[in-house]
Design brief:
alpha/beta, D-Maltodextrin-Binding Protein, domain 2, five-stranded mixed beta sheet, elongated
Length: about 260
């Protein structure tokens, strides 16, 4: 009986000790839905966060429009990072964004890339059709993915869209468009400057004038399901000095 009492006391003591462990110290999973153009930098930020905290970060990358629709359809996500305010607006409009957590924290530039090196000035006088030489212009979906939407807006503003619209090869997201150029499937592609940094097989041959398209802005927000301490910790880490340095090194414009 005495031995039983000792064992019982030990079990009770262990239970008390486990209950005393701070909730924040327990490993949690953070589910992030993020624009495909963030992959290289965000993977690096997430890896550092996981190593430091022990929490798990799972990231689903796709075009912002597809991600927004999935979230609004009930897909489980704790954070959303869009490559355009419009898609965040739609998610926010359904009441799925936690109040006070939406922030515009990154910017980007729109560029023309090719597997062959060279430079050109992109403007109304640029003969893009001739430069394509009968080949395809790789772009993300021009009606649903921010990179494609920005790209179409820029081409229309410069008076170039109508001449090349029939040669546009639309991809599900900007990284898929980038891959078409890297693999030689398309001679030219319209992507973000950060995509070009992430892919050594392509070269930036021109930069679109900033005034030719709406400002490229990446908003981030906690969603209504992101209530765990780890969700908040990763949200804050994204805007911390370490993450800012990573994003900056990949070519993003880090907003204050």
């Amino acid at each position: 009986m005495a031995r039983f009492e000792v064992l019982r006391g030990a079990v009770l003591a262990l239970g008390v000790a486990l209950c005393a462990v701070p909730f924040e110290a327990r490993a949690e999973r953070v589910t992030v839905f993020a624009a495909a153009s963030l992959k290289t930098a965000l993977d690096q930020v997430a890896a550092g966060f996981m190593a430091e905290t022990g929490h798990e970060v799972r990231i689903s990358y796709a075009g912002s429009g597809a991600l927004a629709r999935q979230i609004m359809a009930g897909a489980p996500a704790d954070l959303f990072i869009s490559a355009a305010p419009e898609w965040m607006d739609q998610v926010d409009g359904t009441g799925l964004v936690q109040e006070g957590t939406r922030r515009d924290f990154l910017g980007n530039r729109l560029v023309l890339v090719s597997a062959a090196a060279g430079t050109t000035e992109i403007g109304p006088a640029f003969d893009l059709k001739a430069r394509l030489g009968g080949g395809k212009l790789a772009m993300a979906l021009v009606e649903a993915v921010p990179a494609g939407q920005y790209g179409k807006a820029a081409l229309k503003a410069l008076g170039l869209w109508e001449s090349v619209a029939s040669q546009v090869a639309q991809a599900d997201n900007v990284r898929a468009a980038l891959a078409l150029v890297a693999l030689g499937e398309a001679p030219l592609g319209v992507v973000y400057a950060t995509d070009a940094v992430a892919e050594p097989r392509v070269h930036v041959v021109g930069v679109f004038p900033e005034e030719s398209h709406p400002p490229i802005t990446y908003p981030v927000a906690l969603l209504e399901g992101g209530t765990d301490p780890a969700d908040r910790a990763f949200y804050e880490a994204l805007q911390g000095d370490v993450a800012r340095a990573v994003f900056s090194a990949q070519g993003f414009v880090v907003k204050d």
